[in-house]
Amino acid sequence: MFPIILGTARFGTYTSREDSFAVLDAFIEMGGGRLDTANNYACWHPEGIGGESETVLGEWLTTKERNSVEIMTKIGARSVDGFTYDKLDGLSPDNIKRSVDESLARLNTDHIDVLYAHVDDLDTPLLDSWKALSSLVEQGIVKQLGVSNYREPRLLELADVIKENQLTPFAYAQYRYSLITPNAIADFGPQVILNEHLFGALKALDCRPEIIGYSPLLDGAYEQSPDELPDDYDNLLNCALIEDIQVQAQQHHSSPSALILKTIFDYGITPVTAASSPERLRSNLQLLV
């Protein structure tokens, strides 16, 4: 299996349709095949409302053999007011059906390879959500299921609900993860950080999900001066770690980003990484292809 999943969150907003197509084509040429998106990408762009990434992927898919790639999308985290994450559309059975129908239309496909519950919905019983998601698998509309940003207690509760009711298990678990640790007061909203304890809990599950880490490169932070770390990661220890990573990358004749992705993969976590150009993509993946 190709060791990287291509993240497409910026396609159709920050990254133009033409550049998005170029990155997608380069990824396929390098041997990749798994593409990560969501129905709310990229609502945080000044002109984004969500769905732009799926739309670009759908247009690109019309030029390819559908079964040559795996489309991994997510539902349940669209902002109700369009501006904040205070209230999300959630994972009620009605919204699951509506969201999947809309994603299928944008993606120009009759099935989704992997459908994630993007964030936990505390207002809908886990059983109700997972019955609806499992039904999609039974119908062949969705091939596999995944979870993203579920905190450990709810993750374990969900695993029990699935087992007790003989529902479709989740084959993927996706969390925010990079090699440096954010500050304790950092607030990532609905995003959940993959830590050592959560990693251990995931590895112990009977369903053995593939563990996936998003935002591994922190928007290029490893390529910059250690003095320019994002505020959520800005501390003396991380500055020292960045310096060490950059020295190691020089020794490997690679970019720091390439070393990060290789190290994360070697840990047993599949990184989701994005790029705005084929050149950047090849640089990031040079230690993995």
Automatic annotation (TrEMBL):
<protein>
    <submittedName>
        <fullName>Aldo/keto reductase</fullName>
    </submittedName>
</protein>
<dbReference type="InterPro" id="IPR023210">
    <property type="entry name" value="NADP_OxRdtase_dom"/>
</dbReference>
<dbReference type="Pfam" id="PF00248">
    <property type="entry name" value="Aldo_ket_red"/>
</dbReference>
<dbReference type="InterPro" id="IPR020471">
    <property type="entry name" value="AKR"/>
</dbReference>
<feature type="domain" description="NADP-dependent oxidoreductase">
    <location>
        <begin position="3"/>
        <end position="288"/>
    </location>
</feature>
<dbReference type="InterPro" id="IPR036812">
    <property type="entry name" value="NAD(P)_OxRdtase_dom_sf"/>
</dbReference>
<dbReference type="InterPro" id="IPR050523">
    <property type="entry name" value="AKR_Detox_Biosynth"/>
</dbReference>
<dbReference type="InterPro" id="IPR018170">
    <property type="entry name" value="Aldo/ket_reductase_CS"/>
</dbReference>
